[in-house]
Design brief:
The longest helix has 13 residues. The protein has three helices and five strands. It is globular. The strands form two sheets. The protein has a three-stranded antiparallel beta sheet, with helices on one face. A two-stranded antiparallel ribbon has the order 1-5. With 92 residues, it is α+β, with helices and mostly antiparallel strands. α1 packs across α2.
Length: 92
């Protein structure tokens, strides 16, 4: 799965529910009925902050993701985008 464009604005799909768990979180998409596991609490923080951030890169920075880890987080977010858990936010 290609990495997501970190310089674009993203958000959780409106039909996705996030349930925090001790290991990270479960994401459930009510439209596709897909379930995703987030096994990284920092990734959970990034996903939660997407809606308020001007870009995925800014959401990563706000969650304290070091520059060296951005490729890994971009790939993880890309996988979530590939399963429609996160979607690109369009300007209002």
């Amino acid at each position: 799965m290609p990495a997501l464009d970190l310089d674009r604005a993203w958000d959780l799909h409106p039909q996705v529910s996030v349930r925090p768990e001790p290991f990270g979180a479960l994401l459930y998409h009510f439209g596709t009925r897909k379930l995703s596991f987030l096994k990284d609490r920092v990734l959970l923080e990034v996903v939660r902050s997407l809606k308020d951030a001007p870009s995925a890169r800014a959401a990563c920075a706000a969650a304290g993701v070091p520059e060296t880890d951005l490729p890994r987080f971009g790939a993880a977010l890309g996988a979530l985008a590939g399963s429609s858990m996160v979607v690109e936010r369009t300007p209002a």
